[in-house]
Design brief:
By secondary structure, the protein is mostly beta strands. It has five helices and 23 strands. The chain is 12% helix and 30% strand. The protein has a six-stranded antiparallel beta sheet with strand order 18-23-19-20-21-22. Strands 8-7-6-3-9 form a five-stranded antiparallel beta sheet, with no helix packed on it. The N terminus is likely disordered.
């Protein structure tokens, strides 16, 4: 997913979670004074937490705002949450917070909160009933398309929940047989989640697991997702943090391939407003609105669908690692 009317990502901003502070410190923060030492730089509003009335405390001294706020860390509940442009269910979805992922809350009004996702700094509005401060720190991430949760450490017991690929879970213990992991809602197979500090999945293998998943603008989990959400998700499972939108990914990920370099498995292909990952030298895996799902199809077919007047159908070919 890309928003071509906006500028490139502000790469100089500090890590999205580095400015998180406890609300108890808000009094000390309110007494601080900040001075702008130079002209205000251009910024990408997608990943710069500033509004007309307030901004993240981490931006003080760089951008002017009437108020600076110390963010409070929340986490998405089991159903996850859509991130929207405005505080309304009718507002356009710009991204998605998967179960267990963090959200840095800066302001709340009624049923909605404004802030940014802790994994990529993407800003927006989220329903307050979809996030909580009580969730423990995640230790694992779901790396299969859908992980079932059972009431007991047995596949013969009741299924009580299900988590999509990308959901983050706090594992409490392992079963005596070693086949299940205990999470807050029940037990999941040890084969369905990996430790966050041991992410090394094959991103193409994970993308192929998602073939057939419906296309959803703003989606980025195993249930439904858009093009850049797919790429961000599978790279995260391989241990590579990626920005949210395709233009940001094109600017920051990997190295550009020379014209005479052949494509190979795992290469990223960037088009105007679109991105996909190569299954091999000829086949692209991508979430797209043409088929309204994730598909694996010849790269040549994707290129051929662009109108003849398109100045450049392939904007970049990038290789990770």
């Amino acid at each position: 997913m890309t928003h071509s009317t906006r500028s490139a990502a502000d790469a100089s901003r500090a890590d999205a979670v580095s400015g998180l502070q406890d609300p108890a410190d808000s009094g000390a923060i309110a007494q601080q004074r900040f001075v702008l030492s130079g002209p205000v730089a251009d910024y990408d509003p997608r990943v710069t937490p500033i509004r007309g009335d307030l901004a993240d405390i981490a931006l003080a001294g760089r951008f002017f705002a009437p108020h600076y706020v110390a963010p409070q860390l929340y986490r998405a509940l089991g159903a996850g949450a859509m991130l929207r442009k405005a505080g309304s269910d009718d507002a356009e979805a710009v991204s998605q917070i998967l179960p267990g992922e963090g959200f840095a809350l800066l302001d709340s009004t009624g049923e909605w909160g404004w802030g940014y996702c802790s994994h990529d700094g993407y800003c927006g509005y989220v329903r307050l009933d979809a996030i909580t401060r009580a969730a423990p720190e995640p230790t694992h991430i779901v790396h299969v398309r859908r992980a079932l949760v059972f009431a007991e450490p047995s596949i013969k017991t009741q299924m009580v929940a299900a988590y999509p690929m990308g959901a983050r879970l706090a594992v409490e213990s392992a079963s005596e047989c070693g086949k299940f992991l205990k999470v807050d809602s029940g037990w999941i197979s040890v084969r369905h989640a990996i430790a966050l500090d041991a992410r090394d999945c094959d991103p193409v293998d994970r993308a192929l697991q998602l073939v057939g998943a419906p296309y959803l603008w703003g989606g980025r989990g195993g249930d439904a997702l858009d093009c850049s959400g797919l790429v961000q998700l599978v790279l995260a499972l391989a241990g590579h943090d990626a920005p949210r939108d395709s233009d940001q990914q094109r600017s920051s990920l990997g190295r550009a391939l020379a014209d005479d370099e052949a494509l190979q498995r795992g290469d990223l292909i960037f088009f105007p407003g679109h991105v996909g990952i190569m299954m091999d030298g000829d086949t692209l895996v991508h979430a797209n609105a043409f088929w309204m799902q994730v598909v694996a199809e010849p790269l040549a077919d994707v290129i051929a669908r662009f109108p003849e007047e398109t100045p450049q159908s392939v904007l970049a070919r990038k290789r990770i690692g």
